[in-house]
Amino acid sequence: MLARNPDLHCHSTVSDGLLSPRDLVARAVAHEVDLLALTDHDELAGLSDAREAADAAGLRFVNGVEISVSWGEQTLHIVGLGFDAAHPPLVEGLAQVRSGRDERAERMGAALAQIGIRGAYEGALKYVGNPALVSRSHFARYLVEIGVARDVKSVFDHYLVRGKPGYVEHDWASLEDALSWIHGAGGLAVIAHPGRYRLSNDELEKVFARFRDLGGDAIEVVSGSQGRECTLGFARVARRYGFLASRASDFHGPLESATDIGCADPLPEDLIPVWSHL
Ligand code: AMP
Ligand code: MN
Ligand code: MN
Ligand code: MN
User: Fold this and answer.
1) Which residues lie with the beta carbon below 6 Å from any ligand 1 atom?
2) Residues 129 and 225 in one domain
3) How many Cβ atoms are within 10 Å of 88's Cβ, its own excluded?
């Protein structure tokens, strides 16, 4: 496919976004997006509504998902694009990945109670659109509501990242499984926001190499959460490893996300866009 303004990574209320799949599609249309993927965390339940709304508006839509993957002690996010959403290993694998989220959330609530923040689990649930998908973002919104920190970003920095009091360890999918579910379903696998991981350059190179060796297809050379310098660095990575390149806002909601849907920077022109293979 060709596209002038593709956006291949965003979230709805089916995971930790603030807009319903239909409202997200309407916003994409308003921002002149011409190729959209909805990529909720570990969940496909928003795809049919989004596709229906996109079809009605004449917006091209591809199935997407953002899979949580454990890499040692770190979490990586692998986006799948253009897959068959009924492929049983993908559907069952994602159900398995989701299944630990509620218990994790209860443990987060207990961990926060230990530092005197009570009721955070129940408070986070008020923000949850899909009971199977409680995320740290929902806790962050509740902690902002009760005045623990001034915005979502500072809640993460002080409470919800590794080493902070509300962080609990969790086992997600393996990289191997995530790739085999995506590829088995006929999709393409993309490393999401490579600039967001707390990994040294050497460790990040190991991720790229392993991902390539497992048949990984693309990286988000452009992500809404990064600046131009990062983009140039990941463009070099794409050339070096032979990865296709994706462009993504990672939009979660108005006011909360730095980059709105359809508003990420353009890809450097020499790269092969992942959407040319969709
Ligand atoms: P979870 O899947 O529950 O671990 O939540 C991960 C989500 O939290 C990410 O997809 C982001 O939406 C959000 N998030 C993670 N780190 C940050 C951060 N530093 N600032 C804002 N949001 C973040
Ligand atoms: Mn998110
Ligand atoms: Mn992510
Ligand atoms: Mn995301």
Assistant:
1) 16, 41, 68, 135-137, 152-153, 156, 252
2) no
3) 11
